[in-house]
Amino acid sequence: MQNSLRTIFHVDVNSAFLSWSALKRLQEDPGSVDLRTIPSAVGGDVKTRHGVITAKSIPAKKYGVRTGEPVVKALQKCPQLITVPPDFETYRAYSHRLMDMLFALTPLVQQVSIDEAYLDVTELVSPEDREGAAALARSIRASVLAKLGFTVNVGISVNKLLAKMASDFEKPDRTHTLYPDEIQKKMWPLPIGELYGCGRATAEKLRLVGIDTIGDAAQADPAQLRSLLGPKAGMYISRSANGIGSTNVTPEREKAKSISNERTLSEDVNRDNYETNGIPVIRWLVQKVSDRMKKAGVAAQTVTLQVKSADFQRYSRQSSLPEATDSPAVLEDACLQLAERLLTGTEGLFSDGVPVRLIGVGVSRLSEKKMHQMDLFEWADQQQTEDEQAAAEAERRKRQEKENLLSSMLQQVNERYGEGTLIRGNPHISDPK
Ligand SMILES: [Mg+2]
After folding, report:
1. Which of 109, 110, 260, 301 has its Cβ near the most Cβ atoms within 10 Å?
2. Global pTM value
3. Any catalytic annotation for residue 254?
4. Out of 116, 128, 275, 393, which one is annotated catalytic?
5. Are 131 and 98 found together in one domain?
6. 308 shares a domain with 419
7. Into how many domains does the chain fold?
């Protein structure tokens, strides 16, 4: 069963959005302070109430600033916090450069979000060669830092789950291993909520029955987990807590054709409670979808609102936007207009007295957000370290010497056998005259 062990890396950019915003700022204004060295955060649109922290610097973390919390709340904890708006064009461009570098190493790269990817590097280092794996991880980190200017964590193991868990250990700029023989020591003491794929609700249920750590879940009766969480989730938690996961790195760059989220309502929505129970759900769904679009670096041109009526019929309305966007405000407007047609308007379901039990929001006709990639390439080239420049110069000199040697050989041959007897690029000499 263990005869096909793989070496799997998980590469994860440290505070990706913040690092990339910091680099962009330094690029535009080299004299400015590096955001990574001060309490700073990337915050949503501060003018709308949807403004939340999407990334924070390590100094900001020390003040208790948390990803996902409202900007306003973060500022209460840390009044000197510098916030910058997100810049997804820049993020997309850095992401591209990183993936290009990883794909240059091996074709077995599976990008799973804008700032993380799994690599199957078994061909480069065998699973037995732990020192080799660590050295490869170190060189990936060093070259990303030298060429692109930001740090990554690399997690090393034999499957994707363990590699992902490993890359999440101490940050930034670290390599961590989580081999099967290290699970008990490194993974089992962690709180159950830190197990990849264990959401807040699942963690809460597990804690209620006394399962506080990943180790508790690993040692729990799988049947108990299945009856508590349902067959699928129960099985997943039981297996993952024991370090069992997929080794299948499917080469791909993240590309979504559509993104949607839906939610079953705790209480059917009709005309009377639409304002209080319907609209907030639509807004919440729009925010979810918009967050996912931003993570994928895409904009959408089509918005769909879908509902399921109390008698389980699905209905939907779609609209095209004048231009592709990922703006929650624009998407929300479009959705609320669709809701008027689908639900509250004279021809809507509510007019027929039909309540709904589920609402869904989706976007499609996705396009990648435009990039200024050229600037970035030029800039990244300037970031070459002096060593690299010296190496490139030596390489160039060597090539020149080779060419000189070749052309003097060519000359000698021509002198001896006459002009044109040597076919260039194919060192094969025709009959001498
Ligand atoms: Mg990351």
Report:
1. 109
2. 0.62
3. no
4. 116
5. yes
6. no
7. 3
In terms of C-beta distances under 8 Å and separation of at least 24 residues, what long-range contacts does 373-377 make, across chains too?
373/93, 373/96, 376/93, 376/94, 376/97, 377/97
pLDDT digits (tens, 9 = 90+) for 234-287: 999 999 999 999 999 988 775 556 788 889 898 999 999 999 999 999 999 999
- For residue 115, the CA-to-ligand 1 centroid distance in Å is 5
Q: What is the CATH number of the domain that holds 11?
A: 3.30.70.270
Cα(286)–Cα(296) distance, integer angstroms: 15
What is the side-by-side strand order in the sheet with 298-309? 258-269, 356-368, 298-309, 314-325
Q: Which helix (H) or strand (E) holds 213?
A: none
Same domain, 159 and 266: no
Average pLDDT over residues 79-97: 87
81 C-alpha to ligand 1 centroid (Å): 21
Please name the residues in contact with 25: beta carbons below 8 A apart, sequence gap of 6 or more: 32, 35, 84
Ligand 1 center from residue 255 Cα (angstroms): 18
Range of the domain at 19: 1-187+243-254
Domain identity same for 81 and 144:
yes
Residues 216-223, mean pLDDT to the nearest whole number: 97
Q: Among 254, 281, 304, give the residue marking a domain's end.
A: 254
